[in-house]
Each structure stands twice: as structure tokens, then as C-alpha cells.
Design a protein that fits this description.
The protein is an alpha/beta fold. It folds into two domains: 208 residues, 4-Layer Sandwich (Metallo-beta-lactamase, Chain A); 72 residues, no CATH class. The strands form two sheets. Strands 1-2-3-4-5-6-7 form a seven-stranded mixed sheet, covered by helices on one side. Strands 8-9-10-11-12 form a five-stranded mixed sheet, covered by helices on one side. The longest helix is centred in the C-terminal third of the chain and has 22 residues. 32% of the residues lie in helices and 21% in strands. The protein has nine helices and twelve strands. The structure holds zinc ion. Zinc ion binds next to loops.
Length: 301
């Protein structure tokens, strides 16, 4: 139930929850002299409490800043476990509306999961294009990379340590997911992240890696983009396109059914749709189940 702390620089840690598929996300713990930064929480109350124990063990001091890389419940349902007078909860300025709009709807997809108590907690402050945090001896930049995985993405960049917490712009060993964001926006964001020249990349899910994780996501998204062009030219739907696709090595990715959702976004953008325009997620999720041979999506929380 608990994650593994992976130390990537002095005072800089990833909190990795294996294997990293649906609902099982990574977090970050950055221990400064004046404050500890926690990047994302977890999907269930129990998992969030285990993360809080890990934070307490590394940084018993009171001042905490919890940054949400985006509003999705696997990254935010546990925020209330950290809320309190000494904690700043920070999101992108688009986050609060999404938290209120979506609430705990995600949980209805997996009613058998023990979610625990997960009240929606709103951020105490928000950032627009970016902000800089001085944690005491460690500087952290919060950067909004544009509409990518969602419209309210934030990544956390530690320039001295060259460590990047990329949130769900990076899935490591699992299929990327841009249904609720933008495929072309994600490609632009990846170029921006690559230009930072990170040494360590902590994705939102899956094992910690280096800049090659950015390359893997880009390769996948370019493949999806090509599939969409051909699918549109052949008059196919996203689901039909996914079914006819030669997945090659991508077939081994966790949660490969996301291909259908990604194709919905790719089709929408290929015909000139606005980046990030709402695509109803329930029908797309249903098609992902169909693509999976009718097997429900696997949430390991
Ligand atoms: Zn997400």
C-alpha cells in the first residue's frame, strides 16, 4: 500500500508507487531548510497517509507546501490529509474549477476501491504561468507548460539539482493520456521540458528515469498523431483506428487502452479543433473498455 522513497539528490526524493498504472501515482518530497515541498498526494486516504508518514520521516518540520501537478483525483484526493494551518496547497489557477467540477466522480469508475475519506480541498493559492519557491537552500520553479495532459498542468523544476517532476506529462512504462488535454500541446510542452536539460525525470506514474522518458512519450504521441491522420483519411472512428493499429512495442505499455482516448483527442485536433476543448470522457472510457475486450480498466489503488 505504501510507496518507495527514491533519493535523486540531496534532500530531493521521488515517492514511487509501483507499478504506476491507473490510480497509482508518484509524488515528490523536497526537503529545504525552511519548508518541505510535496509534489502531489495520492488517490486513497490510506495511500495519502502512507505518503504523509514518509514526509514526516524525512522532514518533521511544520512548514509544508503541497503542489498539485493537475486536478486528477489520483494526484489530489489525498490533499486533505496534508491540509492545515502550516500547509500551503498550491495548484495552477485552472485547478480549483476543475476540482469542483469533477469532485470525486473518478471514484465511481472503481466502486470496489477503498477510497476512504477524500473530501475535496481547494488550494490556498494558485499560480498562472509560473512561480518560484525558495525552500531554504533549494529553489523550485513551478511551470505551467501550456495545455498538455490537462489544462491545469504544473511541473516542478529544481534547476540546481536538474530534477524535473513532470506530473502526468510523463508516464513511465505506461501509455500517456491526453484525452483531457492536448496532443499537440503535449508535444510543445515536451520540447520545453527537454530544453531544461533535466538529469532526473520523475513522471506522474512509473519508474524514475532521465530525459529518455521525454523521448518515449514524444515517440508515442507522434505515433498516435500519424494513426489519427490515416484513420481520418480512411473514414474510421478512433475506436476502429485503434483496433487496426499495429501497436508494436507500445502494446507492452501499461494501460494500453488509453490509445482510444488519445485518438479521440488526436482526431479532434487533426480537424482543427481547439486545444483542450472538452471531449466527454465517459463514452471514450467506455470505448477503452471495449478495446480491452470488455475488461474493466484496472485500478490498483
Ligand atoms: Zn492525470
Amino acid at each position: 500500500m505504501s510507496g518507495t522513497v527514491v533519493t535523486v539528490a540531496d534532500g530531493v526524493h521521488a515517492y514511487v508507487q509501483a507499478p504506476g498504472g491507473w490510480c497509482v501515482n508518484n509524488a515528490g518530497i523536497v526537503v529545504g531548510e525552511d519548508a518541505v515541498l510535496v509534489v502531489d498526494t495520492a488517490a486513497t486516504e490510506k495511500r495519502a497517509l502512507a505518503l504523509r508518514d514518509a514526509v514526516d520521516a524525512l522532514a518533521p518540520g511544520p512548514r509544508r507546501i503541497v503542489v498539485s501537478t493537475h486536478h486528477h483525483g489520483d494526484h489530489t484526493f489525498g490533499n486533505h490529509v496534508f491540509a492545515g494551518p502550516h500547509t500551503d496547497l498550491v495548484s495552477h489557477e485552472g485547478g480549483p474549477a476543475e476540482l469542483l467540477r469533477r469532485g470525486t466522480a473518478l471514484q465511481s469508475l472503481w466502486p470496489d476501491v477503498d477510497w476512504g475519506n477524500t473530501p475535496t480541498v481547494l488550494p490556498t493559492s494558485t499560480v498562472g504561468d509560473g512561480a518560484t519557491l525558495d525552500l531554504g537552500g533549494i529553489t523550485a520553479h513551478l511551470v505551467h507548460p501550456g495545455i498538455a495532459h490537462t489544462g491545469d498542468d504544473l511541473v516542478v523544476w529544481l534547476p540546481e539539482q536538474r530534477v524535473l517532476y513532470a506530473g502526468d506529462l510523463v508516464f513511465s512504462g505506461a501509455a500517456p493520456f491526453v484525452l483531457m488535454g492536448s496532443l499537440t500541446g503535449s508535444l510543445e510542452a515536451l520540447a520545453r521540458l527537454r530544453a531544461l536539460r533535466p538529469r532526473v525525470v520523475v513522471g506522474g506514474h512509473g519508474p524514475v528515469g532521465g530525459p529518455e522518458l521525454l523521448d518515449s512519450v514524444e515517440e508515442y504521441l507522434r505515433w498516435v498523431s500519424g494513426l489519427a491522420e490515416r484513420g481520418l483519411a480512411d473514414g474510421l472512428s478512433p475506436l476502429e483506428t485503434a483496433r487496426r493499429a499495429d501497436e508494436g512495442a507500445f502494446a507492452a505499455l501499461l494501460d494500453r487502452e488509453r490509445l482510444v482516448g488519445n485518438l479521440h483527442r488526436a482526431f479532434q485536433e487533426a480537424v482543427g479543433g481547439v486545444h483542450g476543448a472538452h471531449i466527454p470522457s465517459t463514452p471514450a472510457m467506455r470505448e477503452m473498455v471495449a478495446f480491452n475486450g470488455g475488461r474493466p480498466l484496472k485500478c490498483l489503488a
